[in-house]
Amino acid sequence: MAFRCLKQVIFSGKFPSRHFLGGPIAVRQNSCQTSEDEFCVNYLDGDREGIVVFSMRRFRYKNAMGRKIMQQFMEGMNQVKFDNAVRCVIIRSEVPGVFCAGADLKERAQMTNAEVSAFVQKLRFSLSELAGLPVPTIAAIDGAALGGGLELALACDMRIAACSAKIGLVETSLAIIPGAGGTQRLPRIVGVARAKELIFTSRVLDGVQAEKMGVVNHVVEQNKEGTAAYERALTLAEEIIPQGPVALRMAKLAINQGSEVDISSGLKYEEAYYAQVIPTKDRIEGLMAFKEKRRPKYKGH
Questions:
Q1: Taking Cα atoms as reference points, which of 231, 210, 3 lies closest to residue 138?
Q2: Is 103 in the active site?
Q3: 171 is a catalytic site residue
Q4: Mean pLDDT throughout 165-180?
Q5: Dihedral, CA atoms, 70, 76, 82, 87, nearest 10 degrees?
Q6: Which of 148, 168, 179, 181 is the catalytic position?
Q7: CA 14/CA 19 separation, integer angstroms
C-alpha cells in the first residue's frame, strides 16, 4: 500500500502522559515521580489491561542513551519481567519527532576508552534483556531512530514506523560500528546482504523504505499529533492481549531459540515449549470456550 507522507507536525511541549488517541487512558501505575524523569512505565487499564507502555522522555537530548535513562530503562524492564499480568510491552517516545537519537555522544566524549567500552557493554546487555522479555514487545517509531535508537527498536519483536520516521544504523559515518546488537539483529531481520548495505553506507530510510526492506512490520501515515505509530502499536497490542498468556510466552521462546539453530533442533524447542502449555488450565479453558462458542477467559496458568 502506497503512502503519501505528510509533513510531520513538530510542536513544543510534552505529550500528556495520560492522554493519547484523543481521549484519556486509565493508568494502573506510573513509575514517573517527577517531570525530570527520563523514562516512565505506564500500566494501561480497562480494555487495554495487560498492555504496558515504556515511554522515553528525555526531551532536551532527544532520548539520547545516557547513563540515567538507561538505568531507568533497566529498572522498568525488571519491573515487568516477572509480572504475570503483563501481556504486551510497547516502547515509544514522548519527544516530538524523535524515537531515540542513539548514544549520548556529548556524554560519551567525556569518557575514557575503558568507560566507553564498559558503557557499550552495559547497553548491549540492556538490549539483550529487552529482546529476552517473556512477552511480545512492539517499538512505536514516530520519529528518528538512529544508531542505538534503531538497535533499541531491533531488540523488540515488532516495529511500527510513521512514514516520516528516519531510521538507520549510522555508526560507520562516525568511524565506529553498531555495538548494541545491530550487526547481529539487523541481518537476522532483513538478511545479510541488505544489512551489510545499510550498515556499510550508514543509509537513513524513511518509514516506507524501512517497510519495503523488512526493517519494520508496518508503516503508517503520520497524524497531526505525531503519534500514529504509537496508535497502531496499541491496535496491534489489543490483538495480542486476548490470546493465552502462557502460550504467548512459550511461542516467543520457541521462535527466538528455534531461529538460531537448524530446523531439526528448532522442532525440538517447539516440542519442549508445547509440552509446557499442555497441563495449563488456560488450554482447557480454550477448548471449553470453543465448544460453548464464547470468548475464553485466560488467567495465565
A1: 231
A2: yes
A3: yes
A4: 95
A5: -120
A6: 148
A7: 11
Q: Find the catalytic residue in 38, 94, 171, 231.
A: 171
State mean pLDDT over 210-239.
Answer: 97
Model confidence at 118: pLDDT above 50: yes
Backbone angles phi, psi at 227, to 5 degrees: -125, 20
Q: By percentage, how much of the chain surpasses pLDDT 70?
A: 88
Nine-digit cell at 74? Answer: 533497566
Q: Which amino acid is at 127?
A: L
Q: Tell me, what amino acid is at 262?
A: D
Residue 136: strand, helix, or coil: coil
Within its chain, how far is the Cα of 204 from the centroid?
19
DSSP letters of 215-269?
SSSEEE---TTS-HHHHHHHHHHHHHTTS-HHHHHHHHHHHHHHTTS-HHHHHHH
Q: Output phi, psi for 46, to 5 deg.
A: 65, -135
- What's the pTM value of the predicted model, to 2 decimals? 0.87
Q: How many residues does the chain have?
A: 301
Catalytic residue among 64, 103, 140, 161: 103
Give yes or no: 153 in active site: no
Distance CA 40, CA 170 (A): 27
Query: Does 260 qualify as catalytic in the annotation?
Result: no
Instruction: List Cα–Cα distances, 12 to 60, 79, 96, 211, in angstroms.
Output: 11, 31, 8, 29
